[in-house]
Design goal:
With 573 residues, the protein is an alpha+beta fold. 25% of the residues lie in helices and 39% in strands. The chain is built from 8 helices and 30 strands. The protein has helices at 2-24, 412-420, 434-471, 474-484, 488-502, 511-517, 521-535, 547-571, and strands at 30-34, 39-40, 45-51, 69-83, 86-99, 103-107, 111-112, 115-116, 120-125, 138-144, 148-150, 155-163, 167-172, 180-195, 198-211, 215-219, 223-236, 239-250, 254-259, 273-274, 276-284, 289-291, 296-305, 323-327, 331-337, 340-353, 357-361, 364-370, 375-381, 384-389. Strand 28 (364-370) and strand 29 (375-381) form a beta hairpin. The longest helix is centred in the C-terminal third of the chain and has 38 residues, at 434-471.
Length: 573
């Protein structure tokens, strides 16, 4: 019985003791400590604040730290433990701080529920100074390709992150410069290196920076934020636990002087500050004479150092009458060589001459500012004269039409005999009566009127059949077939023979002359689409579809057929 009573009392005593311990617990102590002292000017320190009670996360006010430090981030955790019926509660803050200046800085007392921590004096030394004897585990080296540039001139920033410890995770922020465009160039490069006898894993990243405003600026280098592995102070027999420590490393600040646009730069020209800018051209085919109707490709390449791809100007090309231009979409490329960004724009122009002769292409000029010599310059492609000769194969390119069988027109007598089946009576002339002559004359006149009407109807029928055979000829059918098969080259070759077959004008040998005969905007647009598909040489162009040309050809052919029939009916007596 006594043993049973003891078994019931023991848990009860435990609960009463636990309840009493919880009720009696209260905040009595706040401690503060840092992980390293002294500290580098670009290196973070971790401030740990511990309260011996479970308090609210917002109970700690960190605003007093802002005078000498920048609060990068903070984490809060709570823990409750019990040893020998004694409950212990703690609340822990881990605050990552970046010093705002060098020298002896003070971390002031921090107050939680009227309980204060002791202040801490931190010695902040300049990176690389004689006072900094400790080799850094992580540091950032930043370098500008130039710190004295013009507005809208591209400058590269090379950032090298040196990691000499094992990291759990980490990230690198973007550099910051007011009134500037910042873009990362290429991918990160990773390598190994030794600095002051310590081996580092080096991650290199390059940024292209284009300032949009003149003046003197301070460039804030990227900051590394992550967690590194540290040896744990907790050891348990044969087990050793690893812990992580938050760390922030700030790159050094760089000064940048940005000059305005010089006063002697022409106001009408686009501002292009560059170390080097050139224009280059190529012709395909590479010959001195070209042929009417055959495409000519002129490739113009613009190369500039110290300019982004988006800053390269538009290449404009004009041509005289008789020469049609089809510009292709420009190709843009950029390469980083020796901390210098070189951009290139390559554009193809397809030229098609409609008649023989000499054509003068105007010179192409691009103004730019040489940032090396600080002088205004021009990149020029001089005036170009090309010779176009007649196409000797223009006449033989037309397909010979098949002979059209024209129905034979019978003579009036055969029409009467075969179709009408009327026999004309033979009268014997008699001089006996004038009345007989009158009836004979009226009969002959009636017969002649009847025969004339039959011939008129037969001729109209023959003309309608002849017009139908002319409209639906081999050229027209072949052209429709090429459009349905989406064969652009065959359709273009069949256009001239088809237009000659339906036109009452003298035959033409060039497509430009043939287009002039057709008063159809839809047909002209469809022909331009065919030429653009064949000669535009665009790498991203979709295959030519013959639907639009098919519709335009059918509409022109039907309209021409209606006009021909209407004209024939109106002119016949």
């Amino acid at each position: 019985m006594v043993k049973i009573m003891l078994k019931l009392v023991t848990p009860l005593v435990f609960l009463i003791t636990l309840t009493h311990a919880n009720t009696a617990f209260a905040l009595t102590k706040v401690t503060a400590s840092i992980d390293v002292n002294p500290v580098m000017s670009n290196e973070s320190i971790v401030l740990t604040v511990v309260a011996n009670d479970n308090v609210e996360r917002s109970a700690l006010d960190t605003s007093p730290l802002n005078a000498n430090f920048m609060v990068v981030r903070s984490e809060v955790s709570s823990q409750t433990s019990m040893v020998n019926f004694k409950t212990t509660r703690t609340t822990r803050w881990q605050i990552v701080l970046m010093p705002r200046k060098t020298g002896k800085l003070l971390i002031p007392s921090l107050v939680i529920d009227n309980v204060s921590s002791k202040p801490i004096e931190v010695n902040v030394v300049e990176q690389g100074s004689s006072a900094s004897t400790k080799q850094q585990d992580i540091f950032i080296a930043s370098q500008l390709s130039s710190n004295d540039i013009y507005v809208q001139q591209l400058v590269t920033l090379t950032v090298k992150l040196h990691i000499g410890v094992q990291i759990q995770r980490g990230s690198l922020t973007e550099p910051d410069l007011p009134e500037a465009t910042i873009v990362q160039v290429g991918k990160d490069q990773e390598s190994d290196g030794i600095v002051n006898g310590k081996r580092y894993r080096i991650i290199e990243r390059t940024y292209a920076i284009t300032p949009e405003k003149s003046g003197e600026f301070t460039l804030n280098s990227p900051m590394f934020a992550g967690e590194i592995m540290v040896q744990s102070s907790r050891r348990s027999g044969f087990l050793s636990f690893g812990e992580t420590k938050p760390v922030n490393i700030l790159g050094e600040k760089l000064t940048l002087k940005v000059r305005p646009i010089p006063d002697n730069y022409p106001s009408y020209a686009t501002w292009l500050p560059s170390e080097f800018l050139s224009l280059h051209q190529e012709w395909q085919p590479n010959t001195n004479e070209f042929t009417v109707g055959e495409p000519i490709t002129r490739t113009i390449t613009l190369t500039a150092a110290g300019l982004a791809k988006s800053q390269l100007p538009i290449i404009e090309m004009t041509a005289p009458d008789g020469l049609k231009i089809y510009p292709d979409q420009a190709e843009l490329n950029a390469n980083l060589t020796k901390e210098r960004l070189v951009s290139q724009k390559k554009q193809n122009f397809a030229l098609v001459a409609s008649k023989a002769g000499q054509y003068v292409l105007p010179k192409i000029t691009i103004a730019w500012w040489n940032t090396i010599t600080n002088k205004y310059q021009q990149a020029v492609l001089p005036e170009q004269t090309i010779t176009v000769i007649a196409n000797p194969d223009s006449k033989t390119q037309q397909l010979p039409p098949n002979p059209i069988k024209t129905p034979k027109i019978n003579s009036p007598s055969s029409i009467v005999d075969n179709n009408v089946n009327v026999s004309a009576p033979i009268f014997v002339a008699e001089q006996s009566s004038k009345l007989q002559w009158l009836f004979l004359t009226l009969w002959i006149l009636t017969l002649l009127f009847w025969l004339t009407h039959i011939i008129y109807l037969q001729r109209n029928q023959d003309k309608a059949e002849n017009t139908k055979h002319t409209s639906i000829n081999n050229h027209y059918l072949a052209l429709l077939a090429a459009c349905k098969q989406n064969n652009a080259e065959q359709a273009l070759n069949l256009l001239i023979p088809w237009i000659n077959s339906i036109s009452d004008q003298p035959k033409v040998s060039t497509l430009a002359k043939a287009i002039e005969l057709m008063n159809s905007s839809a047909l002209i647009q469809a022909i331009n689409d065919v030429q653009q598909s064949l000669y535009g040489q665009s790498s991203i162009a979709s295959p030519w579809q013959g639907k639009s040309l098919l519709s335009a050809v059918q509409a022109v052919n039907a309209n021409k057929h209606k006009k021909t029939v209407a004209s024939d009916i109106k002119l016949n007596p």
